């Protein structure tokens, strides 16, 4: 992948977390536990992430995690919450922040590789990261590999500044109304193609 392919990054969250995120930024899991919030995380995945350490760096839960493309297995698993979740759009300049790490697939995966931001972008397979679908009916192992790669991550130490949040996507009119009722400064649009 080339840096020019990364026009924005994504963070999946409950709409009712947005005011707190605008006040405090997108926090690492460890920092977020200090604030009241609505979690969209899957507990079984968090169990894997909790003790995973990035070689030569910190624990996964010490990093705020962003996706290259939120149209991924995580968002698919949360389709029952489409009326109450959003995808925050993050300026790609976050890749230039100190200590940012790129995971070439879901960071909790057994086969993940971690890179500096620039090396990580080069290592990613653009076609797989931005693929519309990750299934493979003929080969379940290939399907698992593609599913993991589709969830490639940008890991930012501690937090992502709210100054880097440039907008939001929601799935439908109901979610748009919930988001707009918050009265935030963020531009928000319905992007049903991103959701499931």
From TrEMBL:
Residues at the catalytic site: 49, 153
Binding site for NAD(+): 11-13, 49
Keywords recorded for this protein, A-Z: DNA-binding, Glycosyltransferase, Nucleotidyltransferase, Toxin-antitoxin system, Transferase
GO molecular function: DNA binding; glycosyltransferase activity; nucleotidyltransferase activity
Catalytic function, reaction form: a thymidine in DNA + NAD(+) = an N-(ADP-alpha-D-ribosyl)-thymidine in DNA + nicotinamide + H(+)
Superkingdom of origin: Bacteria
Any Pfam family the entry gives: DarT
DarT domain: residues covered: 7-196
TM region(s), chain numbering: none
Record's keyword annotation contains Oxidoreductase: no
Similarity comment: family membership: Belongs to the DarT ADP-ribosyltransferase family.
Protein name: DarT domain-containing protein
Source organism (scientific name): Nitrospira tepida
């Amino acid at each position: 992948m080339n840096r020019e392919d990364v026009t924005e990054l994504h963070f999946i969250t409950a709409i009712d977390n947005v005011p707190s995120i605008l006040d405090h930024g997108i926090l690492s899991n460890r920092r977020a536990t200090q604030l009241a919030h609505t979690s969209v995380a899957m507990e079984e995945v968090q169990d894997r992430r909790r003790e995973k350490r990035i070689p030569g760096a910190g624990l996964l839960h010490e990093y705020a995690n962003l996706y290259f493309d939120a149209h991924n297995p995580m968002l698919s698993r949360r389709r029952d919450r489409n009326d109450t979740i959003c995808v925050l759009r993050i300026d790609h300049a976050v890749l230039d922040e100190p200590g940012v790490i790129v995971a070439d697939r879901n960071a909790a995966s057994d086969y993940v590789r971690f890179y500096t931001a620039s090396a990580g972008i080069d290592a990613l397979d653009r076609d797989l990261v931005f693929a519309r679908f990750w299934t493979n009916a003929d080969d379940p192992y290939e399907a698992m590999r593609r599913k993991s790669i589709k969830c490639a991550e940008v890991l930012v130490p501690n937090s992502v500044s709210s100054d880097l949040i440039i907008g939001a996507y929601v799935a439908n009119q109901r979610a748009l109304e919930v988001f707009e009722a918050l009265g935030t400064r963020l531009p928000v649009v319905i992007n049903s193609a991103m959701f499931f």
